Amino acid sequence: MGVGDISKRILLGRKLRSSQLGETLLPKKIALPVFASDALSSVAYAPDEVFLMLSVAGASAYVWSWKVALAVAVVMLTVIASYRQNVHAYPSGGGDYEVATVNLGRNAGITVASALLVDYVLTVAVSISAGAQYAAAALPFLDTHEPLVATLLVLFLMALNLRGVRESGTLFAVPTYLFMLAILGMCAFGMFQLWRGTLPQAQSADLTIIPQEGWEQPLTTIGLVLLLARAFSSGCAALTGVEAISNGVPAFQKPKSKNAATTLLLLGMIAITMMVSVIVLANQMHIKFVEGHELERLVDASGQPATSQEAVIAQIAHGVFDNFTPGFYFVVTVTGLILVLAANTAFNGFPVLGSILAQDGLAPRSLGSRGDRLAYSNGIVFLALMSIALIVAFDAETTRLIQLYIVGVFVSFNLSQLGMIRHWTRHLRTENDPIERRRMMRSRAINSFGLCMTAVVLVIVLITKFLTGAWIAILAMFVFFLVMKGISKHYASVELELVADEGDKVMPTRVHAMVLTSKLHKPTLRALAFAKAARPNVLEAVYVAIDDDAAARLLDEWDERNIDVPLKILHSPYREVVKPIVDYTLELRKANPRGVVAVYVPEYVVGRWWEQLLHNQTALRLKARLLFASGVMMISVPYQLRSSELARERERRDDARTHAGDVRRGRVAGDDES
Questions:
Q1: How far is Cα of residue 462 from the mean position of the Cα atoms in its chain?
Q2: Over the stretch 64-111, which tens digit does the pLDDT of each residue have?
Q3: How far apart are alpha carbons 440 and 83 in whole angstroms?
Q4: Rounded CA gap, 551 and 360, in Å?
Q5: CA torsion sign, 107 to 111 to 112 to 114?
Q6: Could you give the CA distance from residue 608 to residue 605 in angstroms, rounded to a whole number?
Q7: Which domains occur in the chain, in start order?
Q8: 622-664: per-residue pLDDT in tens?
């Protein structure tokens, strides 16, 4: 095993056999933090976004905050109820993409896929950027280095996920459950204080919010509707990540669809409880919250603007745990951590969706290949690179990235609900069992209500967020759509081109074989012998002469050894090696269009990576030039140098090594059997 292999094993762990796929499946207790961390983490910023949007009209508009929270909760419950129908009807892991493709057509499926791909990339970029800003706030020396910190965090998550879904899920389960404990515990204690009448005021309660320009006057009906629509659309960020479970059903233990539906219900109840509780407590504690760059609107009694402000959850924790500092730091720490780990939901959903798209010919087939740890490694790496590019482009600023959010996921919500309505309608035409028909009609009613709700939200999101950045997400979706259509067209044309017909059985009229020769040594003699065994019509050795003396010496040695193959000398006055061979080969091919030119290339087989740089470079360049020449066959004739034994010895030692768990799995005999 080389240095590269050792490093890979240390980073990713030992390889897993395909038969061990069942060992990587997730129980519900691990699946919940794996697939729910994104939706749960939105509790850390969705309430902030609601208060930010309402603050444009001043603190008096905060009276609507809990009503906005209830509206978001109703939408989330509706979406979750709808997706529980999805995981039962389509448990293969295609999620919204499969629902839309089967029921609405291929273009609808591609639209959903492009929306989800954009949303997954944005999930990583937004979550990691928020985590980087928390890190910079806690560690001042990281200030202005957020893009670098975010990039390193993405690479860290990529490495963890390359180890496999189960291992990464187990690692992420602890902080996710700690976040649930922290937020639910803080809210429960705060509600207890509210019931007793001892709930303290927030630090910002005595501050005053100056309305933004144009919002100073009392709100008209239209103004109020617009304000609430903006707050509602921002609060709907809490719904991102809900769809991940429907895309990750294959990762669940059996019964897959039942476990996925149960996990989805748990996610919804926990997320709604946390979000509504946070907003209610923030309202009761009279929290004031504005955009970070608009702190001049937040003034004290003397009219002096605030110099800083804490996030909504941090302000609640500071007040609720006023006499218990460890509680405050516990809440703030796990909240910052969950923002980073929220990206793990995308790292589980994106590769699975990519593999399904690859199977359907809409994405590169490499995305459908499992790596050493049975994870879709190429999809994980691709997601990491796309997210890093977005982080660098937007300088890891969450405020700018958040405007691109939500659009993609609500596009997929709408098409998914419409697809499910058609699914139930189609099955009702052929179903005669009254009990089953009632179940289908109930499911169709749930999906119909879900479509109405998500359609309203999508319209509101587009109206309120389009000019502030949502257009970029829509443009990215359009680009992904065109790319997938192009890939599909390419694969279809290639498949059509490769269909076998009778003409493919026709033998070439003539085979002209040429063995490339640099000197008369063992690799050349082996290549000549191999070429003779193929019995070509014409066989010759070809030597490119860049030095007349060397060519003369080779001719003399050729005659002395009595080689029975003619030696062709190609003179190269400009000392080129590859071009004369290419030109000669093409001339032979042109002279006999129905024949084949077989080019035998002796190559050295070495055992050390650095030796690859010292040998076979001319052969590689020649292959690159002749690869596109019709009727020309490049044939490598390997000659194993002594160092190649080192590679074989490493492989033998690696195969003989006993790995952890081999005895338990029955691959080797235990000590009691020896």
A1: 25
A2: 888 888 988 888 888 888 888 888 787 776 678 888 888 999 999 999
A3: 14
A4: 56
A5: positive
A6: 10
A7: 43-428+439-493 (1.20.1740.10), 503-656 (3.40.50.620)
A8: 888 888 888 899 999 988 887 777 666 666 665 555 554 554 4
Q: How far apart are CA 493 and CA 481, in angstroms?
A: 18
pTM for the model? 0.70
Rounded distance, CA 345 to CA 349, Å? Answer: 6
Q: Are 400 and 469 in contact (CB under 8 A)?
A: yes
Residue 245 in tokens: 């479970």
- Rounded CA-CA distance 44/271 in Å is 11
Q: Is 570 helix (H, G, I), strand (E, B) or coil?
A: strand
> Residue 28 has which token pair?
């519900």
Backbone angles phi, psi at 199, to 5 degrees: -70, 120
Closest CA to 236 of 53, 34, 473: 53
Tokens coding 596 = 């084949």
Return all residues near 666 (Cβ < 8 A) that are at least 6 apart.
none
Number of continuous H segments (helices) and E segments (strands) in the chain: 24, 7
The DSSP element (H or E) to which 471 belongs, if any, is helix 471-497
Q: Say if CB 420 and CB 148 are below 8 A apart.
A: no
For residue 463, the 8-state DSSP code is: H
For 123, how many CA atoms within 13 A lie in the half-sphere containing its CB?
36
Distances in Å between the Cα of 148 and the Cα atoms of 131, 136, 177, 208 are 12, 11, 28, 36
Tell me, what DSSP letter sits at residue 306? P
Distance separating alpha carbons of residues 544 and 634, to the nearest angstrom = 17
Element (DSSP H or E) covering residue 88? helix 65-89
Candidate from 108-122, 164-178, 545-559 with smallest mean pLDDT:
164-178
Closest residue by Cα to residue 364 from 545, 515, 491? 491
How far, CA to CA in Å, does 324 sit from each of 320, 328, 330, 331? Answer: 9, 7, 10, 12
d(CA 79, CA 77): 6
| Bridge partners, 637 (sequence order) | 602
